[in-house]
Fold these 3 entries.
Entry 1:
Amino acid sequence: MAGTASPGLVWVLVEYPGAWPPNGFEGLDLDAGTKALVISAARTANARILLVRRPGPRRLGARQRHGPASWAVLRHQSSGAYRQLWGAWELDQDLAGIVSALASPGEIGLPPVVLVCAHGQHDACCAVRGRPVGRALSERWPELVWECSHIGGDRFAANAVVAPDGVYYGGLDAASSVTTFEDHLTDRIRSEYLRGYTDLLPPQQAAVAAVLERFGPAGRHDYLVTETVREGDHWRIHITGKPPHPAHIEVELQARRTPVRQLTCRAPTEGSVIVYEPTSIRRT
């Protein structure tokens, strides 16, 4: 599972309590011009658009929205000074505010958002496993937690991403999700359910997860990847740590392709993926 976080530094959230089509925002029945503007701006900013809703009982109907809904632009910065900009929409055209928000630096100091994939129309496993996790987390942190559309890695459901922190978790259930996010929200990231950091390449993500497993929990920015060397299927990654963590660590990984199998509930054919297995972790 380590090394499978989808890359990204910017997220666009659009609250939509009604049914989500398989392709998410692009499939919504919205004003075509406004939707095209938002999609174009998001692509220019390399932003991912996610539909969100609060966990809880589903209301029937395609739209079923009473009063304004929220939208947000969340931006990850390597310094840790994450930025967010929130707005509201009632008419489709109100979503055009996202375009200017993508060009704005946003506000710092706001709490992170916990997004739990529950996109059943994309893959049934995400809904079956994701919704109980969303409910459990929302009972603890009702203002932080949203269900969201597809974030990648359906085979690891239940999946969650913390934004704009840019941290992916997978294989969660109701109990493990609460303990995982108790640690995360106090800046103690553990390796057990970690898929990776969205600002790193897959082998770098796997290397950081291996370091966390070996040396224990650490803050989001306590470890920094400072060198990455690839030789065929072999990777050597140097990581520096802030005190009290080890100052210099070298991780070696071997990339391999998994056997062909059914990867997700809805996959039409079998497939395989590349995984990165640590072969050496040492202080230098």
Note: The longest strand covers residues 248-257.
Entry 2:
Amino acid sequence: MSVNLQQNELRGIRVAVATASSRHRNQLQQVFERTGLRVMLNEPFSDNFIAKIPHNKIDVLLIDLDEADEKHHSLLEKLLESTDIPIIFNDVSVLAFNEPGRQGKWFGTLMGKIAEITGRLEWEAPDIDLGSYTVNDTLLARDSALASQVWVLAASLGGPDAVKHFLAELPSDLPASLILAQHLGSSFEPLLAQQLDRITPLRVMPARVGHTLRHGDVIVVPVSQRLKINPIGVIELLAQSIPSFYTPSIDTVITDIGLRFGANSGAIIFSGMCDDGVLGVRAMHAMGGPIWTQEADSCVISNMPDQVRNTGLSSYTGTPAQLAAKLVEYLTQRQADYG
């Protein structure tokens, strides 16, 4: 059976999508509509979403559930009590990766689940060729831009909240890649990436060997491995050769990025309680990369940015929102100066 005929069997199925990421909603909307499904609702999972369900003829609910969010648990209970519409609990994290083949396989599997749950038992899920499914011109344009500007976001205690506010203010077409070095336990790396990805138009993902770094990427540095960007812009993960009290070592991350990208790098030091980063910013500054810090009053603990400010190398200090606006201004000016 051809893919087109299979898609005709799905045509007209009415789907409601609930996911926090506007970028993921846009991707799902475009692929679903091109596959013949009707998207009746497409918005964050909320009381408002649940209230709209009875007023729309819906065959399948597609929910991206944040297991760490207590509000989502109460919303799920309310949803289960209020409707008997079949629910697919969806993991949209694969959409963060710049891998059309992997995304196509994922979309094909998802279509298979929708076919099964709506009684299309003879339907076989193909791997969808995303080359024929244009997913957002802005995303495609951004995907073609290999990373030339790379900034390190360094954070410790209080950092996740500060970084969330920072990332939420950045535009989807940011002409830079961001490397997040956050002190945390190794089991929290995927969860942190997932939570941050929900609140920003950028793509947040754990570091993976072989991923080509592109503008718009936000890479979460692993705790137990050393992240390097090789000469052609591909991520490599190496064994930690230098012991560090803090993991990941912010000093190492900033130093490595500064050596690799020179004046096309930069570092922003957010909330934290240690001096990790001081050696790194000295190395990056020597290579021509600017150093910025979160201002003390907006930090949970300001010791880490304070220590960096004490070096005299921080050229700008602000709140997370001000730092985001400054980064956009800085990158825009660099584009104008260097093309």
Note: Residues 1-7, 132-144 have pLDDT under 50 and may be disordered.
Entry 3:
Amino acid sequence: MTVTEPLRTGGPDAATWRHRKLYDRICDALHALPTRFHTSLRIAGISATDLFTLNTPLGAAIEQSVVESLNNLRELWDPDDEYQLYSFVRQAQVFPDVRLQTSAPGVDASDRIILGIELKGWFILAKEGEPSFRYKASPLACAPQDLLVVFPWALDEVLSGSPKLLRPFIEEARFAAEQRNYYWETGRRTPGPAASVTRATTATPYPAKGSKFNDEPVSDQGKNFGRIARSRIMDEFISTLMAQPLSGIPASYWQKFISIFAEGVDDKQVERRLADLRKAAELEKISGRGSEAFDKIEAGLRDLLVRQ
């Protein structure tokens, strides 16, 4: 069977879907959200080598804060108050997990849910160096207007402080699901039937809780199916994001710095890896304030290793 590479559609058709302008404004609001994001969460007193563990416990809280912030940006996505009956609601164990919906009486059933967002958070200093979440929803469970949105986040003082959001990754949910399946079946080295994907039985958007809306691989010994970052769909986004400086040092170097000390290697290995990292930084011409910060972080992490 020949598998055709999927293509983006550009979103729902304005000629047949009357909410297209709302869709575009919501995409704009998602891009604007990092500058308007506020949370009462603050992290302090945690070892630098334990930072890797933050993604899971803080992820849900940050995702809920994103939903609240999105509702607070109503003036951006509903400037003329056309959708006063609607709000973004986050729900567990449904797809997509955030829906723009209403429960007001008198609204036609077909308009109770306007669009959905599968929302994911990603702590950019996490050990993997890329988002590790799994996105397994079938393309058949995605409406043309549904989105997959990943909000990277970091702490405003890098090793402590309050979470701050960075530029989001926004993709058509259906295309992302199709690309995931395409990569699984054609982009890896696994030959034959083992590379196949079994499609979900649910073939309609906004499935009810308990519905079987996930695609599943025929074989996945490594439990990697659904790791959307490995489908190459996020490569350019991740590369650009990890080059962004945090306190003068690109995020990728913070991530590598911390991973060196978190892996439990001996002193000689630490020194060798730090030297390799220094050479790489010099090749990328990290200089000035960034170079000074690099020296301070290197010394601080060495001190951390000694105290442990």
Note: The beta strands are 87-90, 98-101, 113-123, 147-155, 163-165, 169-172, 197-198, 216-217, 245-246, 249-250.
